[in-house]
Structures are given as C-alpha cells and as structure tokens.
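Possible regression after last week's pipeline update?

I re-ran a chain I had predicted before the update to compare outputs. Posting the input and the new output here so someone can diff against the archived version. Not blocking, just want to make sure nothing changed silently.
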Amino acid sequence: MADLQIRRLTLADKPVADALLCRAFAGINPGGMVEREVALAPETCWMACIDSAAIGLVCAIQYDQISYIGPMAVSPDHQGKGIGRALLEWLIDGLERRGSTTMLLDATEAGEPLYRKFGFREIAHTFEMGRHAGLGITQLPGLGLFDQAARMDCDWFGANRERMLRRLLEDEGAALYHADGGYLVSQTKVLGPFAALEPEIAGELLDRALAAGAIASRVLAPVENPAAERLLTSRGFQVQREVKHMRRGSPIELRRDLMYGLASFALG
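New output (post-update):
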C-alpha cells in the first residue's frame, strides 16, 4: 500500500490514539492504555497513517523472549483494506529481530482470522468476568513484599515482568496483596495479575482486596484454572465473554493453571 506509512506511536499521539481505540472498540474508553504502552515499550508501539492521518495502531510488550501483543485497532473506515495485516507484519518482524521467540495474545472474534494467517494458534481460552465496582482502596498496603511477588510472577509467567509490575504499583496506584504462595495486584479497572498455588490462598488474597474496597470490576481469568471461575463466581463476578488465547512460536512454561487473573489483555 504505497500511501501507507507506519511510524512510532508516541505520547504526543495520545488524543488521536484514544479516539481511534474508542471507534475501533465501539466506544469503550481505553483509559490510560496509550500512556502505559508507550512507557513500557516505546520501541514496539506503532501507528499506521495515510496522508498524516492516523488510521490504525498496534502495540506489544516484550518480556525477555516472550512478547504479549495488544492493543491492535484499525479505524472502521479503513478496515478490510490490509491495514491490520501491514501493522501486524511490521510488528512481528520487529519483535523477531529483538529476539522474541514466543508471541501471545487474546483474540476477539474479529481479530482471530488475521492472527491465524500469521501462524497464531489457539492454545487456551480466557474468561472476562465482571461485577459491581468497589468503593476504592483508601490505604495501600505498600511494596514491602514486592520482590517476593515479582519472583513468583517470573516463575509462573516464564519471564521477568518486574518493570510492568512496578509501573502498575508505583505510577498507577495499584495495590499489592501478598501471601506465602500467591499475590494479587488490584488495579483501578482490573484485578490482576493474580496467581496462587492453592485456591485457599487465592481466596484469602481476593477477600483482602475486596474488603479493602478494590474498585476493579473486571477479572480476566484463564480457563485452564477451573478454580478461578469458581472462586470469582462465589465473590459476585459473572462471566461476560470468552476470548481465545493464541500463541505464535515456541511453547513456554506459562502456568496459567495457577493464574486467577491477567494484568490485562495487552500485558498478559
């Protein structure tokens, strides 16, 4: 496509990027997604333009050899014209040159056919679950046990995500709840990342966050952990939709069977 340019997505693009995401996802407010993605992975955030007008974007964050792709959006006026394909091809090429051997994403029905063309295969599913929002956590528990939580996250996710976790806790006001054998990060909109060795540990962590007033009204629970749906349903969450978890490249030791909630569909 001769008149298509793909360039870096920067913070200066936030207003147009937010508007593009809202249009592509039927009015859903992306909140601080653009700031977060650019802060964590400025080298893997891209925008597609025609005549300087933004028509699409794609981002990924790389954790060691693993990359998690999202968000990806194309303006409704330009869908079906190869923009998404060009963006994804550009992104994958750059990730491979940066040493990424495994790429993961959670696919909507609309996006799945494109991902399959690039070799992504369905390996699992993720439940998006919701409930009413809490009143808000007025006293954050602090980061005294951050190192232990970060080590568990690295062991179970399969790569070091310390920078992402610090971003959530230090810059975005998330709260960390820790126990021997588990941890939970309570964000403004999402409860996660959230993982534990046993359902009893997960229940104790969740109850602490909810009792403190966790405002988050969504959890993204891996289907491979059946205890997650049972626990969350018992605390008032309900399944709202199910999306396909897809992988391109090498298999990894990702312990989704221990995960009760993802950080987001863009962060894993």
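Follow-up from reviewer: compared with the archived run. Helices lie at 14-24, 33-40, 83-97, 112-117, 146-157, 162-171, 199-211, 226-234. Marking as no regression found.
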